[in-house]
Amino acid sequence: KTPLKQAATSLSVLTEIQPDCQPLTTPPKPKEIPPADPWTPTSNLKMLISAASPEIRSREQRRELSNNTSEVLQAKHCLQEHLSGDEYEKSQPSRKEKSLGLLCHKFLARYPDYPSTAESNYISLDEVAEELNVERRRIYDIVNVLESLHMVSRLAKNRYAWHGRHNLSKTLQALKKVGEENKYTQQIQMIKKREYEHEFDLDGERNEEMARPFGSNEHSEMSFVELPGMEFRAASVNSRKDKSLRVMSQKFVMLFLVSTPQIVSLEVAAKILIGEDQLEDLDKSKFKTKIRRLYDIANVLSSLELIKKVHVTEERGRKPAFKWTGPEVLPNIQDTKLEANSTTCPPPISESITSKEQCSKNLFPSKGKQNFTRHPSLIKLVKSIENDRRKIQSAPTSPVKISTSTDQTLPPFPSKVSQVPAMAKQEGQSKKAKEMKMKLSRSALEGELPSPEAIPRPEPPQPAAPSQQPTLTPQLGVCPPSHSSVSPVILPHTHSGVSYAIYLHPSQAHTVTTYSPSFMLQPLPCANVTGIQSVNSKVLNKLTTEEGDNQIATDNPTKSLTAKERPTLKAEASSQRCLKRSQALQEENLIKRCKSDEESLDTSVTFFPSGYLIPLTQCTHGNKTSFPDTEKAAICSLQCTTYSSPIAGVIPLTTSDLKAVNIPITPLNIMVSPTSLAATPVLSNSCLNSGDPSSAPNPSSSVLNFALQHVGLIPAGVQVPASPVLQHKPVSTQPENVSHSSGNRNPQEEKYLSLFSLPKESQEPQTVTENFFRTPGGPNTVSSLPAHQDGTNRISQGTLYIPQRKLEVSED
DNA sequence: TGATCCCGCCAACGT
DNA sequence: ACGTTGGCGGGATCA
Questions:
Q1: For residue A191, what is the domain's CATH number?
Q2: CA(A138)–C1'(B6) in Å?
Q3: What ranges does the record list as Low complexity composition bias (predicted)?
Q4: Which of A151, A299, A382, A445 allows an S-S link to A146, with CB 3.0 to 4.6 Å?
Q5: What total number of domains does chain A contain?
Q6: 3-class secondary structure, A462
Q7: pLDDT by residue (tens digit) across A132-179?
Q8: Protein A632 CA to nucleic acid B7 C1', in Å?
Q9: Which domain holds residue A275?
Q10: CB proximity A239–strand B (7 Å threshold)
């Protein structure tokens, strides 16, 4: 059965790429079949082209495809050349044409990003291997990493189920969480520090310090594969103990999610991954092997557009690294985001399911997808739920230890084994309850929202269902939905086809709902820093739009739908470039201003904690949940103590708490500066924040996480070294994270986009400063906007950043 | 050259 | 015993 290496026929080759979603069934393209020998180089090229073309066709702009695309294009060129003088067939496919990245693209092209729940997308390794004409071994590489992201799950022997990106955000959240728990951030710094030291003192004996394992608390070998929530892998058929690739892939991703400038160099990643298991064996060959593997993983992740390759230039030279380009991962909250313009963007559908913890307002969980796109979805929902349930039941019983996310409380996802039983239990109530709930929520919604269009997702009351769908959102129970004020409002745009996005501070959200849109204009006048920004952004926006750029917000609605189903890739936000520039400028300034060093670092460290107020409420809720019981109990208590001070009314420094609102009224995207809006103190926000699906990640939770880290850190005895250890990243870098991918843009991102719409990002190298000193206010403000994305940023606002090293990141 | 990473041997596993 | 998975690292390619 193993596919013969070269046996594949050209026919099969032609097959791939159908935009259509049905995978296995894709009928062979009738296209022309080269009469002659199937294996001429030409045929290969054709194959490549065919693979590439769909993407090309799509309006791309996005440099996004970056490597892969370019490769394809190159291949194409080659083809042309060859065609003209095809006699001497070039050698075979050329290494590039066989690259894992390309292969992965082809693989991904066969399945929809967001497969409908109903349909079962099965993957047969044999078939795929045959059709793509590669050895099965290669498919394993791809599938393994996809599996680590829960984009596929193994069903049985030669079978996998395709989930697409539905679970992605949940998975990423989980990974982020685990990463945080593992203190990867610290580990990274540690490594950097070491390197740094090495640079200076060449003697570099890796003695004492080097050898010691990171942080005092050995996060034991939590290196297991975690199954974040959802996927319950087919119990029975679990294969060999997961060893590397899968785990490695997850860890690799964690590094991105945890590190601030979301850039991770291979070297660092390899060290961390190695270090984790074995203590230091600086085995060179081992290192090399690790790197090799990382390339494999990186290729797949690149194809998924989650990362992209860049080069980091330090004094030492240029090092290969990767930058996260995937969706921003919110802290635990869930993100039901309110999609401001669901129309335009492919909905992040699955988005995570929220944790029930939040009171979210999920009432309006709009996951964009269904809300606007299709109603009948309800039915589907139910179905999917059932499906999920089924899965759960079948979940493996083997205990997996997952330190991570398992919270017994209401885990955002039902994953851990331990949870399984609970879930099963729920089953009973299951459907019916859900349905009822749905109804309720729906009605509630309708009452609130003027337009019937928005269909609220039904929420399971409890912890629920592991459904992959976004559907299950938060529970009503916690927070009565009734509060429009609290929750972000989505106004379905009824009239004009155009969707608008308005971002408001949570506090104002209700206002919006309640009042006429006219009020929207008010905020604009506000002049704080942010306000200024917003103005600029507006201008920018306009410009961009005119250019015909791919402004997501303005794009035509129809497109989104299509896009959703299509495997194609989205381009990167055009805005990046601008952002980068601005960042660069800022950085420059900053750098000039501060050249401090280690000392400063110390300072910063010290200051860190101070300056933030954390809303109490949240602490209780979300946080609690977030910690795993036992082990972290201690920490937890600590945290609670720390944070419990009643500061409910306080608003986090960050300006970022914006809410997105979709309003039909004005055709413009109006950005309200958060700050201005923020002027009004937020009421009890626990609910607000946490619940708000739309943008802000739950601040408190983020804070907690952050705090956790610190707590752990400090007590841990890991004193913060004077060196480059602290790395909080300036928000500025964040913009890069804007996701282009089809569906996963979250509101925040949207906000971002709107704020800065810039010409698409170029490939020029950008310079990034890892740590710099940041002053409140001032030019940096801009950068702070995106800050709310994670707690860290939020916190960091008051912090000082010291320029540590300047890195140049260049893209290929 | 160094960065990438394809290839496929072959061991661990499942059945 | 045989087929499936998938570590692993040599060494070919690419830049």
A1: 1.10.10.10
A2: 10
A3: 465-484
A4: A151
A5: 1
A6: coil
A7: 888 889 999 999 899 888 888 888 888 888 888 888 888 888 888 888
A8: 45
A9: 100-197+241-324
A10: yes
